[in-house]
Amino acid sequence: MKKRKVSKKEQERIDKILQAFNREYGLEYRCFLNYETPWQLLFATILSAQCTDERVNIVTKDLFQKYKSIEDFAQADQLELERDIHSTGFFKNKAKNIIECAKRLLYEYNGEVPKDINELVSLAGVGRKTANVIRGNIYKEPSIVVDTHVKRISQRLGLTKEEDPVKIEFELMYKLPREQWILYNIQVITFGRSICTARSPKCTECFLREYCKYYINHQK
User: Fold this and answer.
1) Binding site for [4Fe-4S] cluster, residues?
2) Separation between Cα atoms, residue 146 and residue 154, nearest integer Å
3) Catalytic residue among 53, 94, 129, 151
4) Could you confirm whether domain 8-29+144-218 is CATH 1.10.1670.10?
5) Active-site residue, from 53, 94, 147, 151
6) Which of 32, 46, 111, 112 has its CA 20 to 30 A from that of 191?
7) From first to last of its 220 residues, what are the pLDDT tens digits of the chain?
8) Domain extents for the chain?
């Protein structure tokens, strides 16, 4: 994607948005999916596709008690695993991908979750979003995770006009300082759940409304 030069005025606006996020939500790194090991986060993130983190956490509470290791998942019966994860949706593909992913982790990576994004996206069920969740939370590699909240809010704030998640990811990487990438993911998810919801955003309560192009345009 061709980079567009960010004007000084626009950069100042972006900086004010980030400062407001930092004031409101702090600088603490956190993950909304529950896990204890890297492979648990990987499988939980695969389950989170088209599913809420809350639902995934309910499912994995029992799932990770039943399947205690990568070996257990690699040897799992697909139909049984489908039943175990049924409520997360798309359970047939998710079960198949998790089993295939577990086998590759065992046989090609000695049970370790790789760090390299190209190796991560080569695993079954893993796209750039899932790979960046792993890179950011496990390896603390600055990364932008474009989920529904990040896409919607970045568009409303006028940080991107793109629709494709990969293009949004690279545009945000260009416009936001590297040290803010992981924090932006965390802050935007909280913001998107509490204030800037998909339907009926609470614009009058929003601490970003003076910088928000969506709000400004809807006042005209």
Assistant:
1) 196, 203, 206, 212
2) 9
3) 129
4) yes
5) 147
6) 46
7) 455 678 899 999 999 999 999 999 999 988 999 999 999 999 999 999 999 999 999 999 999 999 999 999 999 999 999 999 999 999 999 999 999 999 999 999 999 999 999 999 999 999 999 999 999 999 999 999 999 999 999 999 999 999 999 999 999 999 999 999 999 999 999 999 999 999 999 999 999 999 999 998 887 6
8) 8-29+144-218, 38-137
